[in-house]
Design goal:
Blueprint: H1 9-22, H2 32-51, E1 54-56, E2 66-68
Antiparallel strand pairs: 1-2
Length: 69
């Protein structure tokens, strides 16, 4: 990747798909410490998407996992 370039769109879509998968964890038993670590990781990943001018798309009718803000 070139210096100063925005994060590649494909990378952002993969990150968004990872974040969406975090939602499936709520039905599993996870310790409080692990839950806090997971939330911190999720927040960091969401920040990457937002800093690149996108937001996560939770609407399953739209195929792209991210939408331009």
């Amino acid at each position: 990747m070139k210096k100063g370039a925005d994060t590649e769109y494909k990378a952002l879509t993969i990150i968004a798909e990872m974040i969406i998968q975090f939602g499936t964890l709520h039905i599993l038993n996870i310790s409080t410490a692990d839950s806090e670590a997971l939330q911190s990781a999720r927040d960091g990943l969401e920040k990457i998407i937002q800093q690149n001018g996108y937001r996560i798309n939770y609407d399953r009718n739209i195929k792209s996992p991210i939408i331009k803000s």
